[in-house]
């Protein structure tokens, strides 16, 4: 029980209530002592007035008056005359004098604590003001033992009452905490356990219902987290299915391309000038396709293998990409341009970077073609101080807001109807594998502009 939130809250409540009662206990006992002494002064004053009314009073009656007042002697000062009104023998000398006329709360608390600590019975003198201005002052001598006993009895009753109040208060708070906090928290825990059994089930997502603001905020945060997790699991499942499908397709496609590669060997032997010019490009394209299929089969999933870094001429790579894209343009009004130094050498994996550029150029061509307007696609590259900077830009309509929100995310970053959004995800993964970055930048006069930065590393 004490390891639970409600159990610890119960114990802390009892401790704090008892602490508050103890802080109240000390001034309460001090006030009780003051009232006790004032009561003795009042009784002594009544007894002295009875004696003043009749000077001839028997010693037995005087002793009875002193016993009722609980004092030994009574001194009354009236008209500047100090008069011993009632008296009896003192069993011991007077130990201390207390003047209640000038005593403030700190002095009363100090004297009360001193009396509780000291168990020895003593004789003390108490001075106070008479009631209803019946004189200048009244002074009595009395024993401390009965007063200390009364103070202890009063203190015990206060402590017992405090304990009862603290227990009742703690129980009420315990029940309130269990109702308002512990029960809703247990409900959230039960929901989380149920959600973990089938996180892909959207029906198990938390529906906030708490009326307490803090708990509702926690439930809303949990709901958002579960929605994102469920979506991520579904996306992961789709990617896994896509990976399996790609592996099967790549297996069959590799066999087909291998056969096509055998035919290209025969084509290269042709004497036709056009065939001789196009044959190397055809062979290169088929070789890249076979390499891609083998890489997919080797890993059996959609992740890119580690790049094989080599120094290569980037202008030649970009020219191959644009040449392949010219064949796909056909009769569309799309022009291609490049701004790359002929001697620019880049360190990277040529096959993977070819795929990255091809995806970006293909996306740009499809965007321009879909708009129905003419446009231009350009590849530019330059060498910086510590990195190579590559830009692929177009004059098309640009990316829609939804595509910008989920840029580089598979199945979500598609810019055209029917697109999967895998192209940009592949580009991002390849560039990250090279230690670089790819970002969408704003450039005047461009519809879309992607900037790739590849670190030079030890090449510099």
Q: Which segments are poorly predicted (pLDDT under 50) over 5 or more consecutive residues?
A: none
What overall geometry do the principal axes of the alpha carbons give? Answer: rod-shaped
**Pattern of helices and strands:** HHEEEHEEHHHEHEEHEEHHEE
Strand content: 15-25%
Please state the CA-atom Rg, rounded to the nearest Å. Answer: 49 Å
**Head-to-tail CA distance between termini:** 67 Å
Total separate domains: 3
Give the helix/strand class: alpha+beta
**Number of helix segments?**
10
> Mean pLDDT, as a whole number?
78
- The total of beta strands comes to 12
User: Helical percent range?
Assistant: 55-70%
Q: Major sheet: order of its strands?
A: 2-1-5-4-3
Sheet bearing the most strands, described? 5 strands, mixed
Can you characterise this structure?
This protein has 460 residues and is an alpha+beta fold. It has helices spanning 5-53, 59-69, 105-117, 145-197, 213-267, 273-299, 314-329, 350-371, 401-405, 422-433, and strands at 73-78, 81-86, 94-99, 123-128, 137-143, 310-313, 334-339, 345-348, 375-383, 387-394, 437-440, 448-455. A 5-stranded mixed sheet has the order 2-1-5-4-3. Strands 7-9-10-12-11 form a 5-stranded mixed sheet, with helices on one face. A two-stranded antiparallel sheet has the order 6-8. The mean pLDDT is 78. 57% of the residues lie in helices and 16% in strands. The protein contains 10 helices and 12 strands. The radius of gyration is 49 Å and the shape is rod-shaped. It folds into 3 domains: 5-169, no CATH class; 202-241; 305-459, Heat Shock Protein 90 (2-Layer Sandwich). It is an enzyme of class 2 (transferase).
């Amino acid at each position: 029980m004490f390891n639970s939130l409600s159990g610890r809250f119960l114990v802390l409540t009892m401790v704090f209530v008892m602490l508050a009662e103890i802080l109240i206990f000390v001034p309460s006992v001090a006030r009780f002592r003051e009232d006790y002494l004032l009561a003795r002064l009042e009784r002594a004053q009544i007894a002295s007035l009875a004696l003043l009314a009749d000077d001839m009073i028997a010693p037995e009656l005087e002793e009875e008056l002193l016993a009722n007042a609980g004092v030994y002697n009574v001194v009354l000062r009236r008209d500047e005359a100090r008069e011993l009104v009632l008296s009896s023998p003192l069993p011991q000398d007077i130990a201390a004098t207390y003047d209640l006329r000038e005593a403030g709360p700190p002095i009363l608390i100090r004297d009360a604590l001193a009396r509780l600590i000291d168990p020895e019975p003593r004789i003390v003198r108490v001075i106070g003001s008479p009631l209803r201005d019946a004189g200048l002052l009244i002074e009595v001598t009395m024993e401390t033992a009965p007063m200390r006993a009364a103070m202890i009895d009063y203190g015990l009753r206060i402590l017992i009452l405090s304990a009862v109040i603290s227990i009742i208060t703690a129980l009420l708070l315990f029940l309130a905490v269990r109702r308002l906090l512990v029960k809703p928290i247990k409900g959230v825990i039960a929901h989380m356990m149920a959600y973990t059994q089938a996180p892909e089930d959207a029906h198990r997502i938390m529906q906030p219902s708490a009326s307490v603001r803090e708990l509702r905020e926690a439930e809303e945060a949990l709901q958002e987290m579960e929605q994102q997790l469920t979506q991520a699991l579904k996306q992961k499942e789709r990617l896994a299915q896509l990976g399996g499908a790609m592996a099967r397709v790549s297996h069959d496609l590799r066999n087909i391309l291998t056969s096509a590669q055998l035919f290209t060997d025969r084509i290269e032997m042709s004497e036709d000038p056009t065939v001789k010019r196009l044959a190397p490009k055809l062979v290169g394209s088929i070789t890249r396709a076979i390499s891609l299929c083998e890489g997919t089969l080797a890993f059996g999933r959609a992740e890119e293998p580690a790049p094989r870094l080599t120094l290569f001429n980037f202008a030649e790579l970009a020219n191959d990409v644009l040449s392949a894209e010219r064949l796909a343009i056909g009769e569309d009004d799309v022009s291609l341009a490049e701004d790359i130094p002929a001697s620019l050498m880049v360190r990277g994996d040529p096959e993977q970077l070819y795929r990255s550029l091809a995806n970006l150029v293909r996306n740009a061509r499809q965007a321009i073609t879909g708009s129905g307007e003419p446009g231009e696609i350009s590849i530019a590259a330059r060498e910086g101080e510590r990195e190579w900077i590559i830009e692929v830009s177009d004059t098309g309509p640009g990316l829609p807001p939804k595509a910008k929100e989920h840029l580089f995310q598979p199945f979500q970053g598609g810019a055209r109807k029917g697109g999967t959004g895998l192209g940009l995800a592949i580009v991002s993964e390849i560039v990250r594998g090279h230690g670089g970055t790819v970002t969408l930048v704003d450039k005047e006069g461009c519809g879309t502009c992607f900037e790739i930065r590849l670190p030079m590393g030890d090449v510099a």
